[in-house]
Design a protein that fits this description.
heterodimer, A: 4-stranded antiparallel β-sheet, B: two-stranded antiparallel ribbon, 11 helices, 15% strand, globular
Chain lengths: 93, 423
C-alpha cells in the first residue's frame, strides 16, 4: 500500500531571490519546485521548467530539500546534500 | 442523499486554531464546528498562492493540469474545459451560490467567477472589497496609510463596514431564502481575512496583548535552505508600514517588535473571522438547516508568520501549504439532532475559551485535490472518475481520491465539545 503523500509545487523565475520570485508570470518561470510531503518527511526538487511546453526536466535539478519530520518538525535542517536520496527521487517521479 | 452543502473557504488561513492545537488563537466557533466534524490534521494545498490553489481544488486537477501557476489564464481557454465542483453540483440539481472570494477574481476565473458554468446566479462580491487596499489605516501621526498591520474603527471605514461582514450578511440572507424553498443548495462563502492587509475591527486586539505574543520558533533563514526555495515576501514589503522600515532585500529581517505585531494582527484577524463563521453557522441553525446541510471548512493555503525568516505564502514549506480541513456531515459525524436543537450556537471569543476537540480526526496526509470527490460522495452523487494521465482533454475527472473512507467516526458519539484543547 503506497504511503500517502501530498504533492505541492511552486514556480520560480531564477535560482536567487528577485523581485518577482514570489509571483512569477508564466512566461518568466524557469524552475519548478515539486514537493512530496509524507507523514515523516518532506522531499522537494527544484527542477528546470519550460513554460512554453509546460514541461519539467527532472534530469536538471537546481536544488533539493529533505526534512525529516520527527527530528525536524519545523523544517529548519535541510539534509538533502548529506543523504542519498535516490529512493525519494524515484518516488517523486 | 439530498443534503445541502455550505462550503466555507478562508483566504490565507494556516491551521492556527484551537482545534488544531494552537494555544494562542481564540477560535471558539470554528472549534465548535470541529467538535462536530471529521478533521484532517495534515491537509495540504497544491500550490501556496491564491488563484492556482483555488482553481486546482475547485476543478480537482493539479496546477500542472490547469496550467495555472500565476493569475493570468483561465483554464477553460488555456488548458482544458474542466468541470468544477460547483458546476458538478449544479448539473446534479443543486442551486449553486457564491458569496465573497471563492474563485480568485480576474483573469483566472474569466472575470466572472466562472459564472454561469459554476453558479446558478451571478456571484456576490461585497462592495467594501474595492477599498481593501485603500489608505484606511490610521498611523500614529493620525494620517491614513495602506499598511500591512491595520486594526480599524469599522465605523470610520468606507460604508461603515468591511468585506467579510458584508459577506456574512449576504450568506445569511441567502440561507433565509433557501429555508423556505425545497431546492437543494450548494452555498460557497469565501472570507478575505486573514489575507493581507491585516485589516480587522480594532477591538480584536484586546484578545492578544502584545506582551503575550512571541516570535516564530525559528525566525531565521535556515543555513542549508537553497536560495531558490526562499520566498522573499515581496508583497508585504510594498505596504506602507513595512516599506518605512527599509528592510534590505531579500534577506534582511523585520524588527522583532514588528514581527510580533504582524503575528498579533494575524491572530486578531483569525478571531474576527471566527466571529463571522460563528454568525453564519448560528444562522444555519436559525434557518433549521443544520440537520440537512454538510458544512466544509478549509483554506486555499497557509501563511508564514516569520518561520524560516519568511512571511506570506509563496513557498513549499508546511506553514505555507498546510490548511485546516473539516467536514460536518449530519448523521455521519454527529448523530441526527433532535428537531429544533441548536447545533452551532454562536460563541463569543471574548467570553468563550473555545478549543473543543474534534469529533473525529485523521492524521493521514491528504490533499485539497480530494475536496471534489469527497463532497460528491458525501452528497450521495456519482463520484467523478479518477483522471487518466494526462487528462488535458477530459472534462470531468479528479486527480485526488475521495477521503470518505478515512472518516473514523464512532457511531452516534455526541459532539465532544468542551474545554479540552485538541491534541
Amino acid at each position: 500500500h503506497e504511503e500517502p503523500a501530498a504533492f505541492s509545487q511552486y514556480p520560480r523565475p531564477a535560482d536567487t531571490p528577485q523581485w518577482n520570485s514570489d509571483k512569477p508570470r508564466l512566461k518568466d518561470i524557469r524552475i519548478m519546485g515539486y514537493s512530496m510531503r509524507a507523514s515523516d518527511y518532506r522531499f522537494t526538487l527544484w527542477v528546470q521548467f519550460d513554460p512554453s511546453s509546460f514541461t519539467a526536466n527532472f534530469s536538471n535539478v537546481h536544488a533539493g530539500e529533505l526534512y525529516m519530520m520527527d527530528s525536524d518538525p519545523n523544517q529548519d535542517y535541510n539534509i538533502y546534500n548529506s543523504t542519498s536520496h535516490g529512493w525519494f527521487y524515484q518516488k517523486i517521479l | 442523499d439530498g443534503m445541502n452543502v455550505l462550503f466555507i473557504i478562508v483566504d490565507d488561513l494556516r491551521p492556527v486554531l484551537g482545534c488544531y492545537g494552537d494555544k494562542v488563537v481564540k477560535s471558539p466557533n470554528i472549534d465548535q464546528l470541529a467538535s462536530r466534524s471529521m478533521v484532517f490534521s495534515n491537509a495540504f494545498a497544491q500550490q501556496a498562492v491564491c488563484a492556482p490553489s483555488r482553481v486546482s481544488f475547485l476543478t480537482g486537477r493539479r496546477p500542472d493540469t490547469t496550467r495555472l501557476y500565476d493569475f493570468y489564464s483561465y483554464w477553460r481557454a488555456h488548458a482544458g474545459n474542466y468541470s468544477t465542483l460547483p458546476q458538478f453540483f449544479k448539473e446534479n440539481g443543486y442551486l449553486t451560490l457564491s458569496v465573497g472570494k471563492v474563485f480568485h477574481p480576474g483573469v483566472s476565473s474569466n472575470y466572472s467567477d466562472d459564472y454561469p458554468y459554476s453558479w446558478s446566479i451571478p456571484p456576490f462580491h461585497p462592495s467594501a472589497e474595492k477599498h481593501e487596499n485603500d489608505k484606511t489605516c490610521r498611523g500614529k501621526d493620525g494620517k491614513l496609510y495602506a499598511n500591512l498591520v491595520c486594526p480599524v474603527n469599522v465605523t470610520e471605514m468606507p460604508g461603515g463596514t468591511l468585506p467579510d461582514i458584508q459577506s456574512t450578511e449576504e450568506a445569511i440572507h441567502l440561507l433565509n431564502i433557501m429555508k423556505t424553498s425545497r431546492q437543494k443548495f450548494f452555498l460557497a462563502v469565501g472570507y478575505h481575512k486573514p489575507h493581507i492587509p491585516l485589516r480587522y475591527p480594532q477591538e480584536f486586539l484586546k484578545l492578544y496583548p502584545l506582551e503575550n505574543i512571541t516570535l516564530a520558533p525559528d525566525p531565521w533563514v535556515p543555513k542549508k535552505l537553497p536560495s531558490v526555495a526562499y520566498n522573499p515576501w515581496t508583497d508585504i514589503r510594498q505596504r506602507d508600514d513595512v516599506e518605512a522600515l527599509n528592510v534590505s532585500f531579500p534577506y534582511g529581517a523585520l524588527p522583532e517588535d514588528f514581527q510580533r505585531r504582524i503575528r498579533q494582527s494575524y491572530y486578531a484577524a483569525v478571531s474576527y473571522l471566527d466571529v463571522q463563521v460563528g454568525q453564519l453557522l448560528n444562522a444555519l441553525d436559525d434557518a433549521g438547516l443544520s440537520n440537512n446541510t454538510i458544512v466544509v471548512f478549509t483554506a486555499d493555503h497557509g501563511w508564514s508568520l516569520g518561520e524560516h525568516g519568511e512571511w506570506a505564502k509563496y513557498s513549499n514549506f508546511d506553514v505555507a501549504t498546510r490548511v485546516p480541513l473539516m467536514f460536518y456531515v449530519p448523521g455521519v459525524t454527529t448523530s441526527p439532532g433532535s428537531p429544533g436543537a441548536r447545533v452551532f450556537p454562536y460563541l463569543d471569543p471574548f467570553s468563550h475559551p473555545g478549543g473543543s476537540a474534534p469529533q473525529g480526526q485523521s492524521k493521514e496526509v491528504v490533499e485539497l485535490l480530494s475536496l471534489f470527490p469527497t463532497l460528491a460522495e458525501l452528497a450521495g452523487l456519482q463520484v467523478p472518475p479518477a483522471c487518466p494521465q494526462p487528462s488535458l482533454g477530459v472534462v470531468l475527472c479528479t486527480e485526488g481520491p475521495s477521503l470518505v473512507h478515512l472518516f473514523n467516526i464512532s457511531e452516534g458519539r455526541e459532539g465532544s465539545g468542551g474545554p479540552a484543547r485538541c491534541s
